[in-house]
């Protein structure tokens, strides 16, 4: 025999064989932790393929979408703050410019008033000039008349002097004639040339005076002498009684028959004089107004010059303030030279333009990302139905496998119960065999004591008679048990290590797929609920703003129904068909009584807005306005919840 006490330890070959056997045993019969670890690695390796197979986009997860939305919101807030600062600066400059414009408008208004006053003064000045010219014409007429009459009277006086040469030597008569001129000069010194007197002098024509008529000396010597001493009392008589009749040496002129004709002329000239007086008063008022306008014109010209100077100063201040603001904005005061300032200003402007373009690009990128996210949401909605179908198929497969497992478990339980029954029967058979053996031994002992009856076998042999052979029964039961075990082993093939492991892997894989599908289903359900909530909110806002309920009946065909919120009946609705990718929208005529009634009701508006102007939105707006106007005022005031407010941003 081999003595183990003399062994110092296992050999190298045995250790190698032991390690190899251990490795093979672990490969065939791995531990549960190693199996789970391998499953995790396999799951991580198969996850992208499964996601790709199921057309599942990781970017559709709420966390990823929320992160993108937060990033976009942060960028938008930064841009909004910068835009708000720029807008505030622009508003402040606009306010300042508006104040200056108001002051400029006020100065322009004053300038306009001054120009109006200037025009008024010019008008008054022109009236004054016209009045002066009129008076000048009158005096020219008077001068022409009296100059002509003076020459006529002088020539007549010379002729009278030649005819009466002897009488001129009488100093008394000569003194009397000379006294007339001196008295008349005294009369002119005391008399004032009023307007009436001037009009009276200017009245009539030059031909109205033909000189002094002298009768024949033999018949009317006295009248000729008196006629030679008489002056023209028609045109040169004063306006008062004392002016019409003035004396020479206390004597009065005698009237002749010619004075009656002159009285008629005087009456006619007085009538003309009254008319001319009225015209003169009108011209005088106009001339006074023209003088006033002229004075105001001069004052307004002075004020205009001062206002123009102030306006120039204001524009200079505005330009200076603008330059100051430019220096403050672009920070170019530290530059030593104007050229450097100009270059710095250009660089600053270019920098601002580049930054503005960059911000615009960022905003466009954010807008495009938001648009892409909207498209991804729409694609996710389209994938919802497919994923739900896949999920339902996987669930049905899982339920089928679970039912099969339950059936197999039930069969296993049934076979186990049958095995237990067979084992119990086998034990009973063994007990019976033992009992029969005990009985046989007892019978052998009793045979020695009792004398057995004689038999054909002799005295040494005894025969035990049984209905069936116990050994045959035991063999039959054993055969049945083996058959049942064989059938049970065939049914319970999963109890083998390899089959059990394969089945467990399949079950784990199915459970993993089920869990992944459940997670995907939760994500899809969350996104679907979010989209549904957003769609409901958007629909409520559209109804509140437009007063129209729009329902999409067939998304693929683009068929939708439109019903006004103010429509009393729920059957009154229009059916439209939208052509995706174009601006074309067609109204469908549905063969129903309600549709025909709606078309008859709104046929005038349809002809006006859809037929003539080709505008369905205008038709819907006109329909909404008409329905709202047809409602009762109390009802609209009771139901209306719309408010109006103005938001002022600080």
Automatic annotation (TrEMBL):
InterPro entries in the record: Mad1
Biological process according to GO: attachment of mitotic spindle microtubules to kinetochore; cell division; mitotic spindle assembly checkpoint signaling
Coiled coil segments of this chain: 69-124, 290-317, 342-439, 500-527
Principal location class: nucleus
Domain of life of the organism encoding this protein: Eukaryota
Subcellular compartments: Nucleus
Gene3D superfamilies named among the record's database cross-references: 1.20.5.340, 3.30.457.60
Record keywords, A-Z: Cell cycle, Cell division, Coiled coil, Mitosis, Nucleus
GO annotation, cellular component aspect: kinetochore; mitotic spindle; nuclear envelope
Record flagged with keyword Cell cycle: yes
Family: Belongs to the MAD1 family.
Protein name from the UniProt record: Uncharacterized protein
């Amino acid at each position: 025999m081999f003595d183990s006490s003399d062994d110092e330890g296992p050999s190298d070959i045995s250790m190698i064989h032991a390690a190899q056997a251990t490795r093979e045993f672990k490969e065939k019969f791995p531990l549960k932790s190693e199996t789970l670890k391998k499953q995790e690695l396999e799951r991580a390796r198969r996850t992208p393929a499964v996601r790709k197979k199921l057309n599942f986009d990781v970017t559709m997860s709420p966390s990823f979408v929320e992160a993108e939305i937060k990033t976009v919101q942060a960028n938008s807030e930064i841009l909004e703050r910068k835009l708000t600062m720029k807008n505030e600066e622009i508003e402040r400059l606009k306010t300042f410019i508006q104040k200056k414009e108001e002051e400029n408008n006020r100065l322009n208004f004053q300038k306009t008033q001054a120009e109006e006053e200037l025009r008024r003064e010019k008008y008054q000045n022109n009236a004054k000039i016209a009045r002066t010219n009129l008076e000048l014409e009158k005096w020219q007429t008077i001068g022409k008349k009296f100059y002509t009459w003076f020459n006529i009277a002088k020539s007549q006086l010379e002729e009278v002097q030649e005819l009466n040469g002897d009488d001129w030597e009488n100093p008394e008569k000569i003194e009397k004639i000379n006294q007339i001129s001196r008295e008349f000069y005294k009369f002119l010194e005391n008399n004032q040339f009023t307007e009436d007197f001037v009009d009276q002098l200017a009245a009539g024509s030059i031909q109205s005076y033909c000189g002094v008529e002298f009768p024949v000396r033999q018949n009317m010597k006295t009248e000729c002498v008196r006629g030679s001493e008489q002056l023209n009392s028609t045109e040169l008589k004063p306006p008062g009684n004392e002016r019409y009749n003035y004396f020479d040496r206390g004597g009065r002129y005698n009237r002749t028959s010619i004075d009656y004709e002159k009285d008629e002329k005087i009456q006619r000239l007085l009538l003309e004089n009254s008319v001319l007086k009225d015209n003169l008063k009108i011209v005088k008022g106009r001339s006074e107004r023209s003088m006033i306008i002229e004075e105001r014109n001069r004052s307004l010209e002075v004020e205009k010059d001062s206002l123009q100077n102030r306006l120039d100063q204001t524009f200079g201040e505005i330009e200076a303030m603008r330059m100051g603001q430019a220096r403050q904005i672009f920070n170019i005061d530290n530059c030593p030279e104007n050229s450097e300032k100009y270059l710095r200003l250009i660089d600053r402007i270019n920098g601002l333009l580049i930054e503005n373009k960059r911000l615009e690009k960022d905003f466009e990128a954010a807008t495009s990302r938001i648009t892409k996210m909207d498209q991804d949401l729409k694609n996710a909605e389209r994938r919802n139905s497919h994923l739900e179908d896949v999920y339902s198929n996987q669930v049905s497969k899982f339920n089928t496998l679970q039912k099969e497992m339950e059936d197999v478990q039930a069969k296993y339980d049934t076979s186990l119960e049958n095995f237990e029954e067979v084992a119990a029967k086998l034990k009973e058979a063994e007990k019976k065999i033992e009992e029969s053996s005990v009985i046989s031994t007892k019978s052998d002992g009793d045979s020695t004591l009792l004398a057995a009856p004689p038999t054909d076998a002799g005295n040494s042999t005894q025969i035990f008679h049984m209905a069936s052979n116990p050994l045959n029964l035991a063999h039959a039961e054993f055969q049945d048990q083996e058959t049942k075990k064989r059938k049970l082993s065939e049914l319970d093939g999963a109890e083998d290590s390899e089959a059990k492991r394969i089945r467990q892997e399949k079950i784990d894989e199915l459970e993993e797929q089920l869990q992944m599908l459940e997670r995907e289903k939760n994500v899809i359900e969350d996104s679907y609920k979010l989209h549904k909530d957003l769609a409901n909110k958007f629909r409520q806002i559209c109804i509140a703003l437009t007063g129209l309920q729009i329902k999409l009946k067939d998304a693929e065909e683009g068929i939708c129904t439109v019903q006004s919120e103010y429509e009393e009946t729920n059957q009154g609705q229009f059916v439209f068909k939208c052509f995706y990718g174009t601006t074309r929208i067609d109204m469908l005529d549905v063969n129903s009584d309600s549709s025909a009634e709606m078309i008859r009701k709104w046929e005038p508006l349809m002809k006006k807005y859809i037929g003539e102007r080709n505008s369905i939105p205008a038709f819907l707006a006109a329909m909404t306005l008409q329905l709202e106007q047809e409602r009762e005022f109390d009802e609209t005031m009771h139901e209306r919840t719309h408010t109006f407010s103005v938001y002022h941003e600080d």
